[in-house]
């Protein structure tokens, strides 16, 4: 009798003993989890279909939010259809590798027929060449640096596969030096910004999405060329509100067991606010960060806002 394949959730549960906090290894100068570095050849050689869509972000910049918006747009706001599987299954994470039997992003993609929606945290220089050769559409979401580092700090506490985050003050230093998983926030946001016109990248800002989600979702609708009514857009705004997504088991990562994501330490969807950084940075930390930010961002004019 043929053995029934394991579900994604069951695979994760069975992999518990093999999971641990993985060290970072540099790939072309970018620190990545050792499991990604060990499989880098297969990631870099991934060949997408021209119809595939890539959603790219620095970690904790609104990735899951953008994924859910896109999935709802592609299914005309059908909430039940978008509950067919958790986000990580519907929209595979291209470069992620975990110990067997958890399927990698590449394994999930192999089982899906194009057009597919694919997630990545890779800086633009590491994105497989096939995405550019095949002129795939790319949506990039960027979040202001201070809120991004706060969110990433909490995530690295609860994500038991990432290196120990250490103290908040030390974490800020690592963020400024580009020593966290997926490298420098500064290089990441600047890389996609500079290439956005030449490579037809839809570049969105998290703060704009919070301020006026209808306007920003309409931008995505136009970019994707989908026929979705304004009434459906309004429905998608409600379905992708922070509270709704936090309560939705398909988007809140509650299916990931505690030995991997310990949500008693910090929830995967924590606050989703603009300006929460003011509750974490001391005046001295803020001054040091602002001075470093001014130096690292002096060569671009990305209109980030730290409050709305």
TrEMBL record:
What Pfam families does this protein map onto?
A: Sulfotransfer_1 (PF00685)
Query: What PANTHER family would the database entry show?
Result: SULFOTRANSFERASE SULT (PTHR11783)
Q: What protein name does the entry list?
A: Sulfotransferase
Q: Which GO terms describe its biological process?
A: catecholamine metabolic process; xenobiotic metabolic process
The record's keywords, sorted A to Z, are:
Catecholamine metabolism, Cytoplasm, Transferase
Which protein family is named in the record?
Belongs to the sulfotransferase 1 family.
Q: Which GO terms describe its cellular component?
A: cytoplasm
From which residue to which does any coiled coil extend? none
Q: Which organism is it from?
A: Triplophysa tibetana
Q: Where in the cell is it found?
A: Cytoplasm
Q: Which InterPro entries match?
A: P-loop_NTPase (IPR027417), Sulfotransferase_dom (IPR000863)
The Sulfotransferase domain covers 50-300
């Amino acid at each position: 009798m043929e053995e029934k394949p394991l579900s994604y959730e069951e695979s994760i549960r069975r992999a518990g003993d093999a999971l641990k906090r993985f060290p970072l290894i540099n790939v072309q100068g970018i620190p990545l989890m050792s499991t990604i570095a060990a499989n880098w050849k297969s990631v870099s050689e991934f060949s997408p279909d021209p119809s595939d869509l890539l959603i790219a972000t620095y970690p904790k910049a609104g990735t899951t939010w953008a994924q859910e918006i896109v999935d709802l747009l592609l299914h005309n706001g059908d909430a039940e259809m978008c509950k067919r599987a958790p986000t990580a299954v519907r929209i595979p994470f291209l470069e992620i590798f975990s110990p067997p039997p958890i399927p990698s992003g590449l394994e999930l993609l192999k089982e899906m027929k194009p057009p597919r929606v694919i997630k990545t945290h890779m800086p633009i220089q590491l994105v497989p060449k096939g995405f550019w050769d095949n002129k795939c559409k790319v949506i990039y979401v960027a979040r202001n640096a201070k809120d991004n580092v706060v969110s990433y700090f909490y995530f690295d506490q609860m994500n038991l596969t990432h290196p120990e985050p250490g103290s908040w003050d030390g974490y800020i230093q690592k963020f400024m030096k580009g020593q966290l998983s997926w490298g420098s926030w500064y290089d990441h946001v600047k890389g996609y910004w500079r290439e956005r016109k030449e490579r037809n990248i839809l570049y969105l800002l998290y703060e704009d999405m919070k301020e006026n989600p209808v306007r920003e979702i309409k931008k995505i609708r136009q970019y994707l060329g989908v026929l979705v009514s304004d009434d459906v857009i309004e429905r998608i705004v409600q379905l992708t509100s922070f509270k709704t997504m936090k309560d939705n088991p398909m988007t809140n990562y509650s299916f990931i067991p505690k030995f991997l994501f310990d949500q008693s330490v910090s929830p995967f969807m924590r606050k989703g606010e603009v300006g929460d950084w003011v509750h974490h940075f001391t005046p001295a930390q803020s001054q040091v960060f602002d001075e470093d930010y001014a130096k690292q961002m002096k060569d671009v004019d990305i209109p980030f806002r730290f409050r709305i």
